[in-house]
């Protein structure tokens, strides 16, 4: 190579080296692997970003264990370092499913209170058998103080409760819960498991949308007035509200035959029927969690162990780790932006290759920026 060609080639080589270095800096990294959890199924950051809450869902062979689940509270410093604050912040829970923080005040319920969805038909009794007595199963919402863990209110919205969401319909198997910025509440309902009871129950999969007035109704143990069921053909699994778009994003899974997952979004305003439901991606492998990145990229957690982004209507691209990293049965993921522009993703891992319940953890992924 002559001198002139070398001069031309040098800037190209330097540019490629710089691009490779920047790309490496932008790669996500597992910054922490936090231990001490028991089947962590869902994670969520507090609105101020100072805390991470993790749901621990105790399971037996025949269903959820009564009174053995708990809610963990961990602190998050400004640099994104997560530390255990109180691993059993709220104890003696049965079938905690998902939680969100109230964006407005409801009567005597302050803004920022925890709304925890709980309950399932699949509960194991003290003898290790599936419970069939409907009167012993509670399904509904628990309101908690985020500072102390004190229970403020508990509302039974299940078949055994006296409050009905609409006509004779009640919650049967809630799968997720989410608020929009106006205080409207969304509750995902999978509708499964009703056949377990001696008095069989018919479930209807969909998303219950309760306007803020309806939330105040149920807090007063009254059947809500402004409520509707957004019907879905598959089982809703997780959802998140994106305030910038005023839209609700949610995941559904089809369980007949080969399990497959799809992602949709709808306007947070009054539901106008299935035609107003926009498909983001469909016919994927089973999905367990969803978040929306600051720049609008949809991030999904798959039961296969990957974090991924939709690519077209029927494909995804994985979040690329070097070396490759797969998560162990990821649950509902949490996302938090830091002041320096970096992003934290909390991934609850419900099982471990170590077996015997060991190694169940929450992995913290850190990204330098939202690409």
UniProtKB/TrEMBL annotation:
Record Gene3D superfamilies: YVTN repeat-like/Quinoprotein amine dehydrogenase
Keyword terms: Signal
Keyword Metal-binding: no
UniProt xrefs under SUPFAM superfamilies: 3-carboxy-cis,cis-mucoante lactonizing enzyme
Residues spanning the signal sequence: 1-24
Residues covered by region (Disordered): 311-332
Alphabetized InterPro entries for the sequence: WD40/YVTN_repeat-like_dom_sf (IPR015943)
Protein's name in the database: Sugar lactone lactonase YvrE
Native source species: Pelagicoccus albus
Upper taxonomic lineage: Bacteria, Pseudomonadati, Verrucomicrobiota, Opitutia, Puniceicoccales
């Amino acid at each position: 190579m002559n001198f002139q060609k070398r001069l031309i080639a040098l800037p190209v080589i330097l540019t490629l080296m710089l691009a490779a270095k920047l790309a490496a800096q932008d790669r996500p990294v597992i910054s922490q692997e936090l231990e001490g959890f028991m089947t962590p199924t869902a994670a969520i950051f507090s609105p101020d970003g100072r805390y991470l809450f993790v749901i621990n869902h105790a399971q037996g062979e025949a269903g959820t264990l009564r009174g053995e689940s708990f809610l963990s509270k961990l602190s998050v410093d400004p640099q994104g370092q997560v530390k255990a604050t109180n691993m059993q912040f709220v104890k003696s829970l049965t079938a905690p499913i998902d939680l969100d923080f109230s964006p407005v005040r409801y009567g005597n319920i302050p803004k920022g209170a925890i709304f925890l969805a709980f309950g399932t038909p699949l509960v194991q009794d003290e003898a290790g058998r599936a419970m069939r007595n409907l009167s012993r199963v509670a399904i509904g919402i628990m309101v908690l103080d985020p500072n102390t863990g004190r229970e403020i209110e508990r509302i039974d919205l299940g078949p055994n409760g006296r409050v009905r969401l609409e006509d004779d319909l009640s919650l049967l198997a809630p799968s997720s819960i989410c608020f929009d910025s106006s205080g409207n509440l969304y509750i995902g309902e999978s509708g499964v498991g009703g056949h377990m009871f001696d008095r069989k129950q018919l479930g209807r999969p969909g998303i219950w949308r309760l306007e803020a007035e309806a939330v105040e109704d149920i807090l007063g143990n009254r059947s809500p007035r402004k409520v509707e069921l957004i019907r879905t053909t598959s089982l809703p699994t997780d959802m998140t509200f994106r305030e910038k778009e005023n839209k609700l994003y949610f995941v559904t899974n089809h369980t007949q035959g080969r399990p497959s997952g799809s992602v949709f979004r709808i306007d947070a305003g009054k539901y106008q029927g299935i035609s107003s439901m926009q498909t983001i991606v469909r016919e994927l492998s089973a999905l367990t969690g969803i978040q929306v990145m600051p720049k609008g990229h949809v991030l999904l957690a798959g039961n296969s162990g990957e974090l991924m982004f939709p690519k077209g209507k029927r494909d995804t691209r994985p979040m690329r780790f070097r070396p490759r990293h797969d998560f162990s049965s990821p649950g509902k993921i949490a996302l938090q932006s830091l002041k320096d522009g970096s992003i934290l993703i909390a991934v609850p891992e419900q099982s471990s290759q170590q077996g015997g319940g060991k190694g169940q953890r929450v992995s913290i992924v850190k990204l330098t920026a939202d690409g």
